[in-house]
Design a protein that fits this description.
This protein is an alpha/beta fold and about 300 residues long. Helix content is about 40%, strand content about 20%. The protein contains 9 helices and 14 strands. The structure holds nicotinamide-adenine-dinucleotide (NAD) and uridine-5'-diphosphate. The site of nicotinamide-adenine-dinucleotide has 29 residues, from helix 1, strand 2 and helix 3.
Length: about 300
């Protein structure tokens, strides 16, 4: 197949591009490098079936020839980055999704919009099934991201209903692994870099808030299975193993053998208290569930950052 991937210089996008190339497909990557890096693509940049174009997908996209799939993964994705670039975040979820859907329509291609557990906001239902409509503050500090993704889902479903586009909408829960940036700001790379440098780990609040972390290899397999399924509506993809942020910090100190301590910093405003996916739908419709334990994924990620 001939596949367009937006955000292919980022963490999840680069792993998915590499996987698609290994499966024998041609991959065209569009990325404006706002948070992506050259090094994420170095393992496959010169692959004969890979092409890279530096392009902001909120602007008109022109691609020669046919496309089988359009995968829209581009977005600012770390709370630190989307706090610094709120308007770019809104634009890539709104205009970028509109442009890539227009391209999929013109090429009669299957389409994926990378959504997020953040569409549930600070959830009042636990764990979160796809039917839950969420608890998002439309004017809060995280709204630029949450609402851009909620709009992205709405415009994707509208193109499906109005134009018959064959859509896929993964709601991705916290995913981690190799190729995350050391200054990404998300909790796992932050804690690992702090532990390896012997600095204190900065736990926000008392660390009782929870997240459920999925290793990147499991996520890539979930995305692939979703694309090969018939499911047009949103599907949760994530690892239901829930940990508190304090437990995560202690685990990382233990696994790195670091002498670091833990300091507590103020909890960011509207930081979700609990998050855990209900993955019944993915299990039933995709026959997918994560296989990699948190500790095993952390060990691989620690080795990557240590290098
Ligand atoms: P990332 O920041 O590593 O990668 C995103 C990529 O998109 C970067 O390379 C960036 O340069 C690019 N990009 C951003 N705006 C762009 C624009 N206007 N034009 C072209 N390229 C642009 O983030 P990630 O963790 O790999 O996330 C990938 C996708 O998955 C995002 O859509 C994100 O919202 C979603 N997601 C990720 C997680 C997670 O835990 N990693 C969780 C939920 C959803
Ligand atoms: N967090 C933390 N210390 C840090 C960075 C993050 O305690 O140095 C917390 C953050 O406040 C949140 C959790 O870790 O409660 C996960 O944050 P992340 O930015 O990785 O993703 P989120 O799930 O909030 O989008």
């Amino acid at each position: 197949m001939r596949i367009l991937v937006t955000g292919g210089a980022g963490f999840i996008g680069s792993h998915f591009c590499e996987f698609l190339l290994e499966e024998g497909h041609e991959v065209i990557c569009l990325d404006n490098m706002v948070s992506g890096t050259d090094s994420n693509m170095e393992d496959f940049f010169y692959h004969e079936d890979f092409t890279f174009h530096e392009h902001d997908v909120t602007e008109y996209i022109h691609v020669h020839g046919y496309l089988d799939w359009v995968l829209h993964l581009a977005s600012l994705a770390s709370p630190v980055f989307y706090r610094d670039y709120p308007i770019k975040t809104l634009k890539v979820g709104a205009l970028g999704t509109h442009k890539t859907l227009g391209l999929a329509k013109a090429k009669d291609a299957k389409y994926l919009f990378a959504s997020t557990s953040e569409v549930y906001g600070d959830p009042e239902v636990h764990p979160q099934p796809e039917e839950y409509r969420g608890n998002v503050n439309p004017v809060g500090p995280r709204s630029c991201y949450d609402e851009s993704k909620r709009y992205g889902e709405a415009v994707t479903m509208s193109y499906h209903r109005k134009h018959g586009i064959d859509t896929r909408i993964p709601r991705i829960f916290n995913t981690f692994g190799t190729r995350m940036r050391d200054d990404d700001g998300r909790v796992i790379p932050t804690f690992i870099v702090q532990a390896l440098n012997g600095d204190d780990l900065t736990v926000h609040g008392d660390g009782s808030q929870t997240r459920s972390f999925c290793y990147i290899d499991d996520m890539v397999e979930g995305l692939w299975k979703l694309m090969n399924s018939e499911v047009n509506e949103p599907v949760n993809l994530g690892n239901p193993e829930e940990v508190t942020i304090l437990e995560l910090a202690e685990k990382i100190i233990d696994l790195t053998g670091s002498g670091s301590g833990i300091t507590h910093e103020p909890l960011p405003e509207e930081d979700p208290e609990r998050r855990k996916p209900d993955i019944s739908k993915a299990k039933e419709t995709l026959e997918w569930k994560p296989e990699i334990e948190l500790e095993d994924g952390l060990e691989k990620t620690i080795r990557f950052f240590a290098k």
